[in-house]
Structure formats: structure tokens, C-alpha cells
Amino acid sequence: MNVIGYLMIIAILIPVAVLWSIKRSKNAVSVSEYWQKKEEEYQEKKVLSAFSRYLGGHPRFDHKTEGLLFLMTKSLWFENFEKGPNIFGFSAAFEKVLIRLPLSRVGNVRAMSEADLVEKGIVSNSLNTRRINRKPEYLAVDFQDEWGVEGTMYFDTMVDVSTWLTQLDNTRRDYVPSEEESTVGACPKCGKKINPDFKLCPYCGCNL
Predict the structure, then answer these.
(1) For residue 156, what are the CA distances in angstroms to 64, 68, 131?
(2) Domain membership flag for residue 32
(3) Is position 1 within any domain?
(4) What CATH number should be reported for the domain holding residue 124?
(5) 36 falls within a domain
(6) Which three-class secondary structure string do you get for the chain?
(7) Distance between CA atoms of 200 and 208, rounded to whole angstroms?
(8) pLDDT one digit per residue (tens) for the chain, 208 residues
(9) How many domains does the chain contain in total?
């Protein structure tokens, strides 16, 4: 390809990149606005949050995905986010993951070494494995979901596991469960509060 060809490609890509950045900036929400909306929606206060990778363990979500792990005054949450289209307008396939665990359903929480997770087959010991935490340790959360299913979820989180353990311990110490939390679950797709006996979310139609 000659110089003119390269210049034509650049001339096409630059406007596309500009339009893409403008579109992203219009959809941007400040951090304070995001948490204000979350606290109003969930009626809880944020305690701790970190960019994290969900590695599996929940009975309804078996694939790894990246998003936000956040602790609030009544619940532990994980929510992934759809990555926006690239500069060419293409978006990867996306499955929404939204997990809510009332603190009354959170069991043992601990740090696990990378070797332990490799032995369980949860992570690979490949040199190409990209780790979020600077240390080779992961957060393991024992739980019971709204349907009485017990399990352990695993997270690779940007915040040190020791910080999560301390904040979870402090928050659970001050936590007083309500009657509503024992009878109300959360839709894994839209996060709305629903009865655990429902087979279909009345808000978004998600199969439960």
C-alpha cells in the first residue's frame, strides 16, 4: 500500500475515533452520581468497592467476568458491565451478571492462594494468566443464596483481600437483618427485589 492509501485510512479512522469518544463522554456518569443512585436504589450505604474478576462459584453464573465487587451496609454485591463498542462500532457478546448476597447469607470469608485455586481448577497456572490483584491471593466467599443453595464464590480483586476481610468483619458486626431480607431475593439480571419462589422476574422477564 502506498502513502496515499495510508493517508486515506487515517482520514477515515480519525472521525470515527472522535465520534466514538464523544458518544462515550455523553454516556459518562460521575462516580459520586453512580453511588448516589445505587444507594437510593438499594437503600444501603456503600462501604467498600473494587474492580474485580468473578471467577465462578455461583449456581446461576458459571463463566468468568469482570466488574465491580462492592460491600454495602446490608449486602455484598457483584455486578459486571457491558464493554462499549470499539472504534469500529462492534460490541462483544455480553451476559449480565448481578449477584446480591445479604450479609445474613454470607458465611466464611477468607483469602486463598493461587496454588489452592489452581488445584481446584478455578484458575490456570499459565504464564499468560492476567491477575488483577498484585498479590497471588484471591477472595473466597461461602454463601447461601435465596433458594437455599450453598456454595463458594471466588474473586480476583484489585483491593487487597485483607482489606475485604476487615471491612466485611466490621460491617457484619454492625449488621441487623430485617424480616424482609429473609423473604426477598434479588433478580440476577435487573437486581430488583423479588420473592424467591418466583420462577420469572416480573420486572425484566429473567428466568430464575
Answers:
(1) 10, 11, 7
(2) no
(3) no
(4) 2.30.29.30
(5) no
(6) CCHHHHHHHHHHHHHHHHHHHHHHHHHCCCHHHHHHHHHHHHCCCEEEEEEEEEEECECCECCCEEEEEEEECCEEEEEECCCCCCCCCCCCCCCCCEEEEEHHHEEEEEEEEHHHHHHHCCCCCCCCCCCCCCCCEEEEEEEECCCCCEEEEEEEECCCHHHHHHHHHHHHHHCCCCHHHHHCEECCCCCCEECCCCCECCCCCCEC
(7) 6
(8) 566 655 566 555 555 554 545 555 455 557 788 888 888 888 899 999 999 999 999 887 888 899 999 999 999 999 998 776 666 666 677 788 888 888 999 999 999 998 899 998 888 876 556 788 888 899 999 998 777 788 999 999 999 999 999 999 999 999 887 655 555 566 766 666 676 666 677 777 777 6
(9) 1
Task: Kindly state whether residue 21 falls inside one of the protein's structural domains.
Answer: no
- Among candidates 197, 148, 165, 195, which has minimal Cα distance to 76? 165
pTM, to two decimals: 0.72
State the residue range of the domain holding 61. 43-86+95-194
